[in-house]
Amino acid sequence: MRTAPLLLVALLLASSTQTLANSEGSSMWQDARIGVNGGTLGALVIPLSNETTYTEVSMNASDMYSVVEVYTATWCENCVITENALDEAIGDSDVMRIHYHRHWLESMDPFGSNATEERWVSVYGEASTSIGGAPRLAPTTVFDGERMHIGKIPSSSSLSNDYATSLAAGQSSGLGGSPTHLTVMAYDSAEGVMLFSWDIGLHGPIGGCCLTLTPWLLLVEDSASFPEGTNGLGDYQHVLHDAIELEELEGTASVHVPPTWDGDDMSAVLIIDWSTEQGKSECCFPRLPGPGVAAASLCLIVALLPSRRER
Fold it and tell me: What does the pLDDT look like over 28-49, one tens digit per residue?
């Protein structure tokens, strides 16, 4: 019977092709986290408004919105170029965009907060400094918490192609398990107080032996008008106002929701950062063989296949 060997050959070839494709794409970006094998799994979103009452959303890991995080400023002219390219790359894809605005030592940008700066610097500051010389550089774009693009200069034929390739790579956690839940139990828009609960029902492929999950609640305004912005955008999209690290994988808490800049368009966003111990990624996430191993294995399998002669 030749079916099993041929199937194994096909799997090895597919693995080799995927590895080569990832290798080619990786020249377009830098690792967003230094010393950490990790990223951001995805996002669950609940819009908040004056009419919001009890609202619950539940998603499997594979269905969560991909997360694209952008570091920007209202004076950043290069940010207009990168955000236009990002618009083109995303198109109609289901993506949660989160825009961090400069706040520390900042006089020209009214958005952002200490909490948003602290999240950016704690997660991406080291990589940004290693690549660009400072922890907070506008524009910077990060896909799935894993792939960082700094500045406006493309690595391929265009910036939109860089971004589209990075978006298509997807998150690499391999996580599965029960659905993750986010529930807004009560929201008082006048007082700016929200009671919510969350439950992260995830695990690694073989039990998460070295897996760390960190949920965050982010409060994001869909659009904020600021005509005084010197880069000419006027309306600033996906503005992150607050970032709250949640200490447990499930629980109930009450938080203060900052007022919107204008309108009634705040959203509660639950994202999940994941990481494994450096040097132990195979413990939780065994990788398929690379091109060299696949090629050697293929030669061995072909040698073992029966000849065409009838016996």
Answer: 999 999 988 999 999 999 999 9
**CA 186 to CA 232: how far, in whole Å?**
38
Length of the chain: 311
Which residues, other chains included, contact 62 with Cβ-Cβ below 8 Å and sequence gap of 6+?
Answer: 176
- Closest among 203, 213, 202 to 273, alpha carbons compared: 213
**Dist. CA 238–CA 79, nearest whole Å:** 14
119 phi and psi angles, rounded to 5 deg: -65, -45
Cα 182 to Cα 72: distance, rounded to the nearest angstrom: 28
Q: What is the pLDDT of residue 26?
A: 76
CB atoms within 10 A of CB 1: 6
Q: How far apart are CA 124 and CA 145, in angstroms?
A: 9
Give the model's pLDDT for residue 36. 86
Packed helices 159-169 and 77-90: angle between N→C axes, nearest 10 degrees: 50
Cα–Cα distance, 249 to 262 (Å, whole number):
33
Q: Give 187's contacts (C-beta < 8 A, 6+ positions apart).
A: 48, 52, 53, 193, 194, 195, 257
Closest CA to 166 of 89, 99, 91: 89
Give yes or no for a cis peptide into 139 (omega within 30° of 0).
Answer: yes
Beta bridge partners of 132: none
